[in-house]
Amino acid sequence: MKKLVLLSGLFIFSISMIHAQADSKEIQFGVKGGVNLTKIIGDDMGDVKSRTSFNAGIVVEIPISDRLSLQPEVFYSGQGFDVKEIDQDNIFDTDQNIEYQLDYIQVPVLLKAYLVEGLSLEVGPQFGFKIHEEFDFQPNSDDGDIEINDEDSYVKDFDTSVAFGVSYKFDNGFFVNGRYNLGLTNIFEENTIFENVDAKNSVWQFGVGFMF
User: Fold this and answer.
1) Which domain of life is it from (predicted)?
2) Contact 112, 69 (CB under 8 A)
């Protein structure tokens, strides 16, 4: 499944150069990137700190009407959280500076509604495929990485969320956007020590992009 998502993304990118500019009524393709502010939320998580990471990928916008479009995307998203101080209500109780990294290939399918020319609201489901997981005890250096393989992981390989956002697209194809992704399902596997832990992904994204 992961390979299928990646190959689909590469296919979309490979044909993006032959399509029209951002103000066209035709299907448009583009690239995007930006910063992530991400954490895990839930009744059992306590006060975990946000991890700062990035996202990068490709988009396609398919017009439905003058004001509505469908926008599927495929992008890398660095997620997870930081633990920087002792918190007695936190299941990850520690006095060390630890970054828990959960990286995904995210595939949202968004409905875009244009309020005025260029300005749109976005909402839709998002499907996440975990591609990497590790603890980093020294986030500001190249040391301290402990990679977690599939056999030792308690985190599910698949995640679902809903995305809400706003975007502004200029006539030259350049666009800016902000988005919030709220996890709908617990990230931890069943039949593990974290089975009943309430923990969901929560991600703010701010970025820029260009439609070809």
Assistant:
1) Bacteria
2) yes
Instruction: Please tell me the distance from the alpha carbon of residue 212 to that of residue 205, in angstroms, as a whole number.
Output: 22
User: For the chain, how big is the Rg over CA atoms in Å?
Assistant: 18
Torsion from C-alpha of 199, 70, 104, 57, nearest 10 degrees: -140
| pTM over 0.85, yes/no | no
Conformational region of residue 191, where left means phi above 0, alpha means psi within -120 to 50, and beta covers everything else = left
Token pair, residue 130, equals: 């975990």
Delimit the domains of the chain by residue range: 2-14+33-211
Tens-place pLDDT, residues 84-96: 644 445 444 444 5
How far apart are the C-alpha atoms of 196 and 76, rounded to whole Å? Answer: 28
Quote the tokens at residue 187. 């990230």
pLDDT tens digits for 164-179? Answer: 999 999 999 999 999 9
> What is the length of the chain?
212
Give Cβ neighbours of residue 38 (< 8 Å, ≥ 6 apart).
50, 51, 52, 53, 77, 78, 79, 80, 81, 201, 202, 203, 204
User: How far is residue 128's CA from residue 104's CA, in Å, rounded to a whole number?
Assistant: 6
How far separated are the first and last CA of the chain, in Å rounded?
A: 28
Query: What is 2-14+33-211's CATH number, 2.40.160.20, 1.10.443.10, 2.170.150.70, 2.60.40.60?
Result: 2.40.160.20
